[in-house]
From TrEMBL:
Lineage, top ranks: Bacteria, Pseudomonadati, Bacteroidota, Sphingobacteriia, Sphingobacteriales
InterPro entries: FecR, FecR_C, Ferrdict_sens_TM
Entry protein name: DUF4974 domain-containing protein
PANTHER family for this protein: PERIPLASMIC SIGNAL SENSOR AND SIGMA FACTOR ACTIVATOR FECR-RELATED, PROTEIN FECR
Sequence ranges assigned to domain Protein FecR C-terminal in this UniProt record: 257-323
Pfam family, one: FecR
Chain segments annotated as transmembrane: 76-95
Keyword Coiled coil recorded: no
Residue ranges constituting the FecR protein domain according to the UniProt record: 114-209
Highest taxon listed in the record's lineage: Bacteria
Gene Ontology molecular function, alphabetical: sigma factor antagonist activity
Length: 325
């Protein structure tokens, strides 16, 4: 079982959403750890350090009532989930004992449906609640299809996607990128989690969107025409105004670049057209692109514009485009 599945099971246990049989399995796993029937620790000293680290994450009020076993059990699992998010206890226990949580008589564990697109492909995905996701080329999302109505959570693993969400106040819609957490009720917005870009960008077209992270779920509230850019390297956020008309410009065949690097341009062309862009002895370190093209008629139109900027030429060789002087 991978780490994402384990975190999902623990979260659903804490929310009281696990089926009765699966709930027993989690309780059994907890009891096994508590009674030392499994040995995830190197030695007694290591065991004491890990337990102290977990206990130190409890709120002061919980630490003062440590003997209240029922309360402690729930808080202990919350702490374990937090430690696992930090990659400590999950690596320590789960990878050494992958069978410990669900044994041979356990029901089938939660599996996420994965949808991906090839470079040069776009796809519209209709969700069970009639919300929709438009995926750009080379993008990937995952979600729990069987329990979607209870937990409308989408994992955007990579790429760009535009979301049009049906309103459901009882079951908010959320997106996880691995770094950012995005939560909405009913709205439309774009999320760009491209692999080559050093940013994750959220652009709101309609409605209201909450953007945060694992430590704080609602750092920023964005409305139509507002955007946030998260720097993956510095972990900093930048708020800025945007034209909501262009939030999903790529779906209509357009391109919007704002200070994009040459590497990001290469990724865009690969994702959009399935073509590899490279140069022949040209220094691209200082190249930067701020471009608005509401509709790109062909890849050649975009290439001619790029070459005019740098006073260079291009040629095509099968699935490659080579820029040269």
């Amino acid at each position: 079982m991978d780490l994402e599945k384990f975190k999902s099971i623990i979260q659903r246990y804490l929310d009281g959403k696990l089926p009765k049989e699966e709930n027993k399995n989690v309780d059994g796993w907890y009891d096994a750890v508590s009674k030392d029937e499994i040995a995830p620790f190197k030695n007694e000293e290591h065991k004491a350090r890990v337990k102290q680290a977990i206990f130190s994450r409890f709120p002061p009020s919980i630490q003062e009532t440590r003997k209240q076993v029922g309360v402690i059990r729930l808080r202990w699992l919350s702490a374990v989930a937090s430690v696992i998010l930090l990659g400590v206890f999950g690596l320590l226990f789960f990878y050494q004992n992958p069978q410990a949580l669900f044994r041979s008589n356990a029901v089938e564990s939660i599996s996420l449906t994965q949808i991906s697109t090839h470079p040069g492909e776009t796809r519209e995905l209709r969700l069970p609640d009639s919300s929709s996701i438009f995926l750009s080329g080379n993008a990937q999302v995952r979600f729990d299809e069987h329990h979607y109505h209870e937990n409308r959570k989408i994992y955007l693993d990579k790429g760009e996607a535009f979301f049009s969400v049906q309103r459901d106040t009882v079951h908010p819609f959320s997106i996880e990128t691995g770094t950012l957490s995005i939560r909405v009720l009913g709205t439309s917005f774009n999320v760009n989690n491209s692999e080559k870009s050093k940013y994750i960008t959220v652009d709101v077209k309609t409605g209201k969107v909450s953007v945060g992270n694992r430590q704080e779920e609602s750092l920023y509230i964005l409305t139509a025409g507002k955007s946030v850019r998260y720097d993956k390297e510095s972990a900093r956020y930048k708020l800025f105004d945007s034209d909501p008309t262009y939030a999903n410009i790529w779906i209509r065949g357009g391109i919007l670049l704002n200070g994009a690097t040459f590497e990001e341009l290469c990724e865009l062309i690969y994702n959009r057209y399935g073509l590899t862009l490279r140069t022949d002895n040209i220094d691209t370190d200082t190249f930067s692109y701020s471009v608005l093209m509401p509709h790109v008629q062909s890849i050649d139109q975009l290439l001619h514009m790029i070459c005019n900027i740098h006073q260079i030429n291009f040629r095509r060789e099968r699935n490659e485009i080579i820029l040269y002087k």
